[in-house]
């Protein structure tokens, strides 16, 4: 019985510490809609963001549009903006895979995507938004570089 009571108290303490850490950075997880737009097609789909610590976050998106399906994952380093409650800057990037199919033509490309942007958690509301510049390098058949690509995310935090 003492072990069970100790386990419950320890679990509650860890949960409380984890919750206070999430509140210190604004949120721990966010799930919602991601957009990738600019030169070429606009892609839309589910987006998930998770903070590993106060500065480091991972983001995954599965996007659809323009005869393409795109899976992309990013690591982002965040920093606070003094005097702007809920607003952070971030830099990062990561890989992606783009699967294109139109008629009898199929193509898969590997993508390298750096990012620089702003992340805003609305104080007192479970809503987070982000906007970033994400120039994209396409590697594979018809390799290319698109400097004019941007991302927008609208997510609910938890």
Helix content: 10-25%
Beta-strand proportion:
over 45%
**Largest beta-sheet characterization:** 8 strands, antiparallel, barrel
The overall average pLDDT, rounded, is 89
What does this molecule look like?
This protein is α+β, with helices and mostly antiparallel strands. 15% of the residues lie in helices and 62% in strands. It has an eight-stranded antiparallel barrel with strand order 1-2-3-4-5-6-7-10. Strand 5 (87-102) and strand 6 form a beta hairpin. The longest helix has 24 residues, at 2-25. The chain is elongated.
Task: Give a quick precis of the structure.
The chain is an alpha+beta fold and 158 residues long.
Topology:
Blueprint: H1 2-25, E1 29-38, E2 43-51, E3 56-65, E4 68-80, E5 87-102, E6 105-121, E7 127-133, E8 136-139, E9 144-146, E10 149-157
Antiparallel strand pairs: 1-2, 1-10, 2-3, 3-4, 4-5, 5-6, 6-7, 6-8, 7-10, 8-9
């Amino acid at each position: 019985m003492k072990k069970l009571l100790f386990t419950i108290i320890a679990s509650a303490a860890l949960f409380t510490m984890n919750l206070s850490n999430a509140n210190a950075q604004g949120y721990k997880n966010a799930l919602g809609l991601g957009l990738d737009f600019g030169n070429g097609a606009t892609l839309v789909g589910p987006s998930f963001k998770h903070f590993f610590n106060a500065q480091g976050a991972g983001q995954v998106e599965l996007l659809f549009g323009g005869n393409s399906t795109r899976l992309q994952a990013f690591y982002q380093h965040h920093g606070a903006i003094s005097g702007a409650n809920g607003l952070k800057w971030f830099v990062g990037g990561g890989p992606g895979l783009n699967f294109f199919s139109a008629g009898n033509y199929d193509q898969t490309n590997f993508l390298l995507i750096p990012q620089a942007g702003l992340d805003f958690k609305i104080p007192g509301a479970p809503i987070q938004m982000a906007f970033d510049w994400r120039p994209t390098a396409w590697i594979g058949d018809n390799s290319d570089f698109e400097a004019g690509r941007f991302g927008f995310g609208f997510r609910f935090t938890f």
